[in-house]
């Protein structure tokens, strides 16, 4: 039963991330309340948190030791956010408001 609850974490994070980006970040960027870089950082953070939740769920379901597993999850989310930030910023720069 607990496994199903851990599977809800990444699903909720993915849905929350999509809603956050489409309902808050993109409309604020189009209304010029956010710069390209700020919008890209917000999108990269939401994607990094989504990846973090996926790795946390995998660690908890597999029964791995929590401390190294959660540190790995945090590092994976951070690296993914940092790597993706440049391409996301380029996407915002080339898109039309």
Descriptive key words:
97 residues; mainly alpha; 3 helices; elongated
What features would you describe in this structure?
The protein is an all-alpha fold and 97 residues long. It has 3 helices and no strands. Helix 2 runs antiparallel to helix 3. The longest helix is centred in the N-terminal third of the chain and has 29 residues, at 2-30.
Give the SSE map:
Blueprint: H1 2-30, H2 36-62, H3 66-94
Helix pairs in contact: 1-2, 2-3
Inertia-based shape: elongated
Q: What structural category arises from helix and sheet content?
A: mainly alpha
Roughly what percent helix?
A: over 70%
| Low-confidence residue ranges | none
How many strands, which pairing sense, and closed or not: the largest β-sheet? none
Q: Radius of gyration in whole Å, from Cα?
A: 15 Å
H/E series: HHH
Mean pLDDT, to the nearest integer, reads 88
Strand content: under 5%
Distance between the termini: 46 Å
The total count of helices amounts to 3
Question: Got a strand count?
Answer: 0
């Amino acid at each position: 039963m607990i496994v199903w609850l851990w599977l809800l974490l990444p699903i909720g994070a993915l849905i929350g991330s999509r809603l956050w980006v489409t309902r808050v970040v993109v409309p604020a960027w189009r209304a010029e309340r956010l710069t390209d870089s700020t919008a890209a950082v917000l999108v990269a953070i939401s994607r990094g948190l989504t990846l973090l939740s996926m790795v946390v769920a995998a660690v908890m379901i597999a029964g791995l030791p929590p401390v190294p597993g959660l540190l790995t999850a945090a590092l994976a989310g951070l690296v993914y956010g940092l790597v993706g930030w440049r391409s996301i910023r380029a996407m915002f720069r080339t898109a039309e408001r």
